[in-house]
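Sharing a chain and its predicted structure for anyone who wants a worked example. Both blocks are below, sequence first, tokens second.
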Amino acid sequence: MRIARVLTRLNLGGPARQALALDPILRSRGHEVRLFTGKPEPGEGDLFDEFVRRGLDVVRIPGLRRGLAPARDLLAQKALRSELQRYRPDLLHTHASKAGVLGRRALQGRRGFDGVGRLHTFHGHVLEGYFPAVVSRRITALETRLAEETDRILAVSHATADDLIRLGVVGEDKLVVVPPGIELDALLEIPRRPQRASGGALREQCGLGREDVLVGVVGRLAAVKQPLLAVEAFLHLGQRYPALHLAFIGDGEERRALEQRVRGLEGGLGARVHLLGAREDMGEVWPELDLLLLTSRSEGMPVALIEGAAAGLPAVARPVGGVEEVVVHERTGWLGEKAEDLAFGLAHFLDHPLERFAAGERARLRVAKRHSGVALADRLEELYRLVLEERAQGV
């Protein structure tokens, strides 16, 4: 099969990491895969060069970026259409909202594209809770129209699939749940013990000793991630647990507000909150963390939780989107809505290091097979073949 995939950007987030795990496997099975992408926002990191370094076929589309910019989006759509006409794919698989709209529109009404299979993945959604109601209705209407001419709509979690059905975007007949799959082998090999044996460069950068506990908040510093809520959870525990430290690994538009909040912390607590920025060397970061904290108000299925679980970390998280499909309350982590609930979960694992270790080991077992790159490739390869067969039969 000749497969074209479109991602808005190759930042350090989940869709790009999935592509990095998936595309080499598909190529090894004899398929051609070309990835079309735009540019990340400042501070998001960019995996484009990593794709090139691995010899993967990746093409930058001018003007393809996040955010609403009609003139720029039109130029990006035209550029994408030209690239697709040259590539002549059997399948087009788009990911997330902007790439999904521009990619599928690029095929509309064009000769030579009639037989091209169309798939789109929702890695979460912005159909409610992000914009004013009138804007949300327009976005939902657009996604509904696009879904009508798409062979399959994919959701990364059952929670996201339920939302798409509830909002009337797509029916059960076209909807498939395909959980994320990423490179896990190196993470599964990270050694873990009930008591930390030593620290590395990141813990040294933060001034941590062997007995200190480092809680990581991994992801973009965006409003939807609610980084300030993580600080509030930390404040509930800061005085009681002097060994507790909080590290933000990521960057984004909320960084300034976060910096201001941290500067205002009293009693030396600010020195125990570390803003480390976006890191491309996450393989070196995961061994240095002891717990994972996720405070988002909305998620599809967070790849950070999957990576953390593979690295042997229990997670304390809000039960939004597909989080509960990764984190099992009191088995592989702790679920809570408010800052005090999250603090209670952190305190549980601080007070019981043996349980923290056991929960991390259970988390590893839970994600090892279900969220591997091979598992994702198997699911998508089967789905791609089914779509092409249906197209050939005129279904």
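Comments welcome. The longest helix spans residues 373-393.
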